[in-house]
Amino acid sequence: MTATWKVAPCLALGNTAVLKMSELSPLTADRLGELALEAGIPAGVLNVVQGYGATAGDALVRHHDVRAVSFTGGTATGRNIMKNAGLKKYSMELGGKSPVLIFEDADIERALDAALFTIFSINGERCTAGSRIFIQQSIYPEFVKRFAERANRLRVGDPNDRIPRLGRLSASNTGKKSPAISVSALKKAQPCWRAARINRPTCLRT
Description:
Blueprint: H1 2-12, E1 17-20, H2 26-38, E2 46-49, H3 53-62, E3 68-73, H4 75-84, E4 89-94, E5 99-102, H5 108-120, E6 132-135, H6 140-153, H7 172-188, E7 190-191, E8 204-205
Parallel strand pairs: 1-2, 3-4, 5-6
Antiparallel strand pairs: 7-8
Helix pairs in contact: 5-6
EC number: 1.2.1.8
Family: Belongs to the aldehyde dehydrogenase family.
Domain Aldehyde dehydrogenase: 2-172
């Protein structure tokens, strides 16, 4: 999704593009390149490059034929790009915590759908994950109850199956850190349901 936000306007304005995705999600970029060719975009207009940021990514940022760089990712990587890009144009969407605001005049069903999607889709591994939800006090108890019920029904499994809604984390180091992060969070905040577990979708009240 993020790739199409960047590629589409670039091509629409008559430019060529080089798409380098995270090394943790290469198949998405490959498929986008295939779809571009199937749609009739000439070869060489959208180019897909795979590799690590420190090698392939840095080489692209420094290359004299690259006129502009658009990056979505961590703040530390963004700083390196700014340092190495020289006089190239660049745009950055760096790390943050995306809040979701729910007011009492909202359509609650749609708000529940949106809140659940923004945090748990793509396993929450995206820059726009709505990891904080602020709810107007008048609807807080009911919203939290219904949100927790929905989150507790989410199942983890093979993402190619129809029933599971969550797959395994893409980064192995994230998987190793997540239990400790979850345990720490459960010490500081109250779980929305009694049986909150560190290896399942969990919501906390603070």
